[in-house]
Design a protein that fits this description.
Blueprint: H1 9-20, E1 24-26, E2 36-38, H2 44-56, H3 64-75, H4 80-92, H5 100-112, H6 116-128, H7 136-147, H8 152-164, H9 172-184, H10 188-200, H11 208-219, H12 224-236, H13 244-255, H14 260-271, E3 280-284, E4 291-295
Antiparallel strand pairs: 1-2, 3-4
Helix pairs in contact: 1-2, 2-3, 3-4, 4-5, 5-6, 6-7, 7-8, 8-9, 9-10, 10-11, 11-12, 12-13, 13-14
Amino acid sequence: MYQRKITTLIQSLLLATLLSNVLIVSACSAESANTPILSNQSTPAEIYELGLAYYEGNSVPEDDNKAFELFEKAANQGYAPAKHYLGIMYYEGLGVEKNYQKAFEWVKQAANQGDSDAQFDLGVMYHEGIAVKQDDSKKFEWFQKSANQGDSDAQYRIGIMYYEGSGVEQDYQKAMQWYLLAANNGSFDAQNNIGNFYEHGYGVTQDYDKAFEWYIKAADQGLDVAQLNIGGLYENGYGVPQDYDKAFEWYQKAADQGNQQASNRIGRLVMNGKIDDKGIVIYSTQETGLTLGDVESN
């Protein structure tokens, strides 16, 4: 499900207009003097925007109870985005007791009205089997509806389904097509997966140069797995000159984000004498039977 997120510039502008609109009046009591109140003439979209402001704590104090009340009011007037967020509130137990069945019902209503985010979340609920029987076919159906509206997360998930053969026949070329759509919409996870396809030749001709190019796009956005993969290219000399120091630099970036495999590889480089171990502490782990390296911050 979608989590609490920062309001976009457009939403901020809409909210600024809303808060200054003549439809908003001030409460009479001193206690509520600073709280904007909507009139009976306010549109469902305006009610939803104010609910979103309370949900995110944007321009007003964060208040899940008020957010729920406003989302419910707009949802009862048929406004799809409000229905979606009402579903989120029930799913997360924010401003109301957690109730997966009601979450599913509200999200499905919004999805049936064409709300892309709700369609994606409905696919997630079918994937996880929340308030409904797990169903890969339904998951694919709703992800595709969202993806066809340009949702990069949905496009990425469809790519995974074709890659794994989950709910659809396995097809690396179709997986690549969906990954490309998601990647061009800014999905760094899809960018990394495209790099993986080129590195291993899944449905495409193996091409380390292209693998490196796509890994870099994702790594530059901070994706630890992509940083790990670039380190692997440098360690093995795939498409780039073999360079253990550069491999270490990329592994370190991933390890700093908590990537365990990157830490293990640093440990391996040190143990094999491939890099200077100055400033690096090596630990043993009984869980994996491997060694891992952690960089001291001096």
